[in-house]
## 1
Amino acid sequence: MKVKKYIGYTTHEAIEKMKMELGADAIILSTRTIRQKGLLGFFKKPLIEITAAYDNRTQNLPNKNEVENLIKIKNDIKTLKNMIYDISSNIKGPELTIDPNLMEYWTRLVENGVHDSIATSIFNRLSQQINLNSKDSISIRNIVKNILVEYIGKPDPLVLKDREQKIVFFVGPTGVGKTTTLAKIAAQMVMKKDWDIGLITSDTYRIAAVEQLKVYSEILNIPLEVIYNEEDMYRALVQLKEKHVIFVDTTGKSHKDLDEKDEIFRIINSIKNKEVYLVLSSTTDYATLKSIVEKYKFMHNYKIIFTKIDEAEKLGNILNIRYLTNKPIAYITTGQNVPDDIEVMDTDKIVEFLLGEI
């Protein structure tokens, strides 16, 4: 008994490759979605990998143990399928009924990391509003893309006005890349030479964070103030009073320990002309991200930055978090290089990726 793997752009293509080599008697043991290799492969359509078992007819016939094992595998797969069917059959309620016209797109979203309940909610609302039975496949595809574009929304990057100082805070869990993200945006603005910039850090719990920002401030030739409390913040603002924009790096901490009474949030609330960015990692799982944004719900006005896009297996959490928070997404980061690996979110590109078109 032999086992081989076949890869195709679709399940049908992989099965056809299997049949051509092994014949119709080959048995499919498993099917899974895999990413193409390399950084560019991240933005390409996933591949389908099929694992198949077959008799090696050039060898001796399979022994009794091999046959019994294969029968057991087939029975286990059949049992698993029946369990899935029973569970799905017992799920009641119109909220979990997907319009057949949308099932293909629902599956693509879920495969690319969109939570099934969110994909279901979006498509149920769509099918309630539009009679899809009267639409052809191309029209339905365009409707789905347009709906997803609306749900993700337009990007909302930093915009500055002449003669108006703005103070920009970066908040979020530890390890998501707040300091590096701040440096990327600051460096791009310095290169444009349109604005005078100042830096403040309150992340004094991590010596490495302060030193990292000091290095960036020296390279970019912009001043840095280190603060330890609320009074220090106001003194730093006086020192940087001539700057057009002031970027503030805050201490990262676990969302489980987050308290809206923390001094940094008192500082944020005391500042008038400000923007706040909640920095999240694309590699964090959905359940944790959901818990994080729940903990930050006391912040009413903020934007979102997703980091480590290059390290993420899927991008569904961009739609998930946008759906849960209704907060605009400003930037995504795609690596560690300063200032290059950051860009304003491209909504159309994200939608195409979620639908498996790139």
## 2
Amino acid sequence: MLNLAKLAAAELHTEPFEYLLVDDILFPDCKPAIVEDFPRIEKNGSIPLSRLSYGPAFRQLTEELLGPEFAAAVGAKFGMDLSSYPTMLTVRGRCDGSSDGRIHTDSKDKVITVLLYLNPGWTDSGGRLRLLRSPELEDYVAEVPPTMGSLIIFKRSERSWHGHKPFDGKRMSLQMNWVKSDRYLRKERFRHEISSFFKGLAGRKSYQG
């Protein structure tokens, strides 16, 4: 599903931090099945893969992202051996216009961040990720619409600022990280699972009310 030749050919930018962009990393024939098999998500926030149900095409996509070939291709671009770092993968199906998109650099425990967007189309001015020179949303070097196959990979640093204008509604994406330790991985999995549980509980109460 992943066109690794496109990844290999992508330019590695070094300012204001190390990042690369691929406008469409997916082979065309796999896209309809990925959309069809994407998990049904009715709440905001990042959800661990383990808490979701999904079809075989989406499963294949996650397996390729977590596989050694993708790790080797990303590592080659950033001059790193990623094989010793644990990986973490979360899924988003919706965006909260009041809280998502706030400017940040990512946790110090993250090494590399991968963002893969899976929306068949995008016309809204919000929800387009901006890679920033500073913690100012208008001071950006790149703006990426979250369209099907759009891929962003960056090396976490004290300057890896990113965020987007508010958007509220359906916005499908995968985030994968290579992280520094299993301890951090366990902590984040626990945090995401607790958050997911309470958001689901709140959603059921709202629906029943």
